Structures are given as C-alpha cells and as structure tokens.
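Weekly structure sync, notes
Attendees: PL (lead), two postdocs, one rotation student
Agenda item 3: pending single-chain targets
PL asked that the sequence for the first pending target be pasted directly into the notes so everyone works from the same version. It is reproduced below exactly as submitted, 296 residues in total.
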Amino acid sequence: MTLSNIELGPLAGLVTDRTRDICTDGAGRVWVDSGDGFELSGLTLTPHDARFIGVGLVESGGGRVDDSKPIGDASLAGRVRVHVALPPVARDAPLISLRLPRPTRVRLDDFEFADDATRIACLTGSLLIAGVTGSGKTTLLSAILDSTTDADRVVVIEDVSEISTEHRNTAYLSTRVANPDGGGLIDLTQLVRESLRMRPDVLVIGEIRGAEFRDYVLALTSGHRGIATVHAGSLAEVGARLTALALVAGLPFDAVAGLVQSAVSTVAVCERVGAGVTVTVGKLVIDNGTLLATAV
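Predicted structure, written out during the meeting:
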C-alpha cells in the first residue's frame, strides 16, 4: 500500500500487513479488523479530525464529499477503498470506512474447493460470485482473472475501482458521479452498454446492485461470458436475491427465472472460515417458476 501517513493522519499507525478494515463509529472510536473480526484500536477521533481525514481521503481519490453531498467514496493509491458519511446522514459524527487490500496476491490454490470439478466450474462459462461483505468475493474474482488466458479480452466495470488482476489484456471502466451542476453522471448501466463496443470476451461487474443487471443479463444471453459479484449469504439466498435485482432492473416477472438461469452457468458462494475462504459451487434451477440455486 502506498498511501502516505499525511493522508491517513493518526490512522496510519493502525496499518499492518494483516489489516483488512479500519472503521470509525459515531463516538469517534476507531475499530480495526485484522482477519478475526473488529477490535477497538484504542484510538479516538474528534468529529473535526474525522471530517478532515475523511474528506481529504475521498478528495485524494478524485471523489467528492461535502455538506451538499454528504456521502462519498473513492479508490485510493494501492487499491485502498474509502467510504465517508458526514452528518446529518451520519447521525453523531463523520464516519470513515477503509478497506485495505491483501499485501500478497491470492491464487486459486489458496481457496478451498470441494474438488477439482468445482474449481474448474469457476473457470468456465459465466460465473456469479456471492457472499457477505468481506467474504472474499473480489479476491476470488481477481484470482480467476489471473488464470484467464491473455487471448481473451477482459473488460472490468466498477463503481469504485477495487478489482486488480495480473491479466494483461484487461480494460477498466469506473462510474462517475454527477458534477455540482448535475451533469456528467456515468452509471453502471451506461458502462455495461459501452463495454459491449469494446470487444469483450469476458465482461466483469464488480458488484451487481440494480438497473445494470438487465443489460448485463441480456449481454450474457447474447453470447458474452460474464463474471460478477452479488451480496448473498448462502446458496439458498441467491435465487431470491437475483429475482429481486432482476425485477428492480425492469425485467418482466414471467421471464426473470428463464433469462437469469440461461445467463449464469455457475454460482460460487464464498465463506470466510478462519484465515481462509471456502467456496461452495452451485447452479441455478427453476422450480415451479421460482429461481433457486442448488449445490452441485
């Protein structure tokens, strides 16, 4: 990580090779997760200091957060992700959330797969990676891209730049918030459409959350291979989550199950177990018109 001590201020002393997340609470207390859950660091920030550090971090990453736009995020040097919420959105005091990358790259061999067949399933066809926050979804996605042949062109689309891959034939696109005058907005939906003009063999979305799911599904059903992540705690939750996202994206209810099933070949659910990540692989099926994910 190459963030300077000046940017991090007093938070700099909390960064080690094991640090994954640094977050503040409404009382200004700073919490650190080094892989075993959050613990108090012993450091407390005043509201003034929390705002000064948070705004500075977002602005250093090209983002914006102020009284007129009290929520902001950005990707910083070394693939550090920052999110800041200011009052009155944050009830008691400015809130800072920092997500730090692993100091060393994680390979596919570092993940726990049930067998070689499930591992191979993640490398072929269109893949949806599910899991809760911090479960290893993005890490698995990056490891899969590292294993992709350079003959395949990869286009990565994200809200905030987080995915990193050693795959050389990769293009990265990121959304842009509106300017103070309201213009210049570029969202995920527009980027999905633009990416199809960039000759992608593999279309990657860092996280599916809304309207972009429609164009993504249509792209996959037209022959493109895709990899994306979604928040879901287990295979049992994936079907309902995808159905909800599809409806929000405007896909017709009676066509949702069939379209999504045909678009996604494999579902991989990440679960953090101790210091490692276990991957459970499944597939989408339709049961009485309902989209479900079942283990394979």
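Discussion points:
- The first strand starts at residue 21 and ends at 24.
- The mean pLDDT is 89.
Action: rotation student to compare against the earlier draft before next sync.
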